[in-house]
Queue: 2 jobs
Job 1
Amino acid sequence: MPANKPHGLRVAVVGATGMVGRELLQILEKRRFPVRELLAFSSGKSQKTVRFRGKTLHAPAINEKLLASCALVFFVSSDEISQRLAPRLAKRGVWVIDDSAAFRLKPQVPLVIPEINAEALRPSRKLIAGPNCTMTAIAVAGFRLHASVGVISARIASYQSVSGAGSAALQELLSQARAMLGGGRPKASALPGPIAFNVLPQVGRFDRFGRSSEENKVAAELRKIWSAPKLRVSMTAVRVPVIRGHSLAAWLNLAKPVSPAKARSILEKTPGLKFARKQYPTPLSCSGRDPVYAGRVRQGVDSKEIALWIVSDNLLKGAALNSVQIAEELLRRRWLA
């Protein structure tokens, strides 16, 4: 449907001035989503501007009355803002697609990756949660294996880019690198320690068991989105000095033996996944690209374990793109008015 037709939708983006918000606006424009009028809001009190379809739009502080007048609202902001506004808007009949962690594990809120579980969408459930960016990569890459053979347990090491921690962390990486190259000392505040030329085995806060919040999120969300409550997940989440793109090394323990050749055949047919038989994917090669990428498939410790390497753009499929794909699914079902 052409984007400039008068019967398009009134759409709002809360958090439009952030990294994910700006990506989301570009995706709406690129994919010609039928937006009649776009309302952009910043997450803070200051008014900023964004670009959409060649025009500069003001992005003022959030206005709930204007949000309630929209057919669809994207939240790409904080958990606190989503918790305060998203349920109220959904109760008033507004479709809400929330990219925060606020509602992902709520039983009554569908957690959706369209290639995996679009059937979880319901016309009566106006509030929809988007997934954790790291979990999205393993969920997409391993889903067809899980559906075909059954994944009993997953061991994961993630290597997560600094953009996943926000613009302040990204600026800190760049300033630390400049300081160190000039012989100075790096200063850290956005992350637990200096990240330039370094790695930090901590993404989020640690619980009393020594697990980080990121590790707990990935495990819980993967069980929900695969409908696999007994799935065992062991993970170490690491922040690395990469600007954009999360990488994962994964070892999947399967219900029955599967050869690497068979696993490659399954992966090549997995929706949303681009499998690399020759050149393995890297964050640099996958930056700005839509699919999840996988490569380096090999046998694990025994015939029931498959090891693979996974990379995806954390700002695209891990966040903004998935939200737009959910909205496109609502359009296909003619639920958006």
Note: The longest strand covers residues 151-160.
Job 2
Amino acid sequence: MNSVTQFLYNILAGINGVVGNYGVSIIIFTFLMRMICMPFDYKSRKGMRKMSAIQPKLNELQKKYGNDKQKFQQKQAELMRKEGYNPLSGCLPMLLTWPLMIAMFAAMRAIANEQLAMQAFRYLAGEDNVVSAADRFLWVKNIWMTDSLFTPIAPNASALQVITQDVWQRAYDLLNDAQRSAIIQNLAGQALDFSSSAAVKASVEAMTNALQSIPTYAAAVEPVSGWSGLNFFLFTVTLYKQYNGLLIFPILAGVTQILQTKYNPQMTEQATAQPSNGQGAGMNNFMKYFFPLLSVFFCLTSNAGFAVYWVTSTCVMWLQSIVITKYLAKKDEQKAKSVTGEGSVK
């Protein structure tokens, strides 16, 4: 992990050390990240609002000089200078937050993979209550697995295979001597090696085979009879006896995205800021359906912790949008009153 990702990782782990539940920790962590990004959101919203205000004038210029591209661009630049508007003011502030968002995703993925690796080690060490209270959240039994009826509560082979070499090594270093001895015993004396990609592949394969012989683990990943490997459209699904969730967070992700897209004041400003043509309207309609479907897909293919972040972040961004828009509207109203007062005869 780079320094920024490690820093965010430490923050999330530190929050959990205080509250003792990763679901609650992710919600708090998401609030903190959104507060950090709020000044950039404000700048972006301010620029978008300015653009929506001058868009009617741009539309008039387009009608007047639409056949003369060079003249239109010249008049457009003059209008921008006159209105004091920078075309980058709407998107540049948001782009500046992307490195932070990427680092945050990496930190969440790192801690999720580390927790799954630790759970696999605890099963191999013969421990009971492998999935602790810190890993449970609401209806989700293991927050590091997908909130789905088609995902077991324990890390299965597909979840273990995507864990990277450095994460395996870091998780193994956290084990005590008693745990390591019990693991080696369950592996019939085979030592684990995470020094290279090939060694990791061999070690994960050995652990996966050994896990199947542990009753508590086998029960946690046991499918419902007759419901294993079913073809469902483009997916192959398995219904588990000890399923991890009820698909609520992926559904919430889609619903909150629909509500944000429909009622978010920023979306209205963006629609106003777009040129009044069929192509712009078609793109807006496409986004209304694309983003909710994309949200559901992300949360169906990620762990429940990520889904908690996604739903929380969408709700917080929606609330921020409403607050910022009302604040900017109030400022515009005060500015308009001030101009009117200055121009009146006293």
Note: The beta strands are 230-232, 235-237.
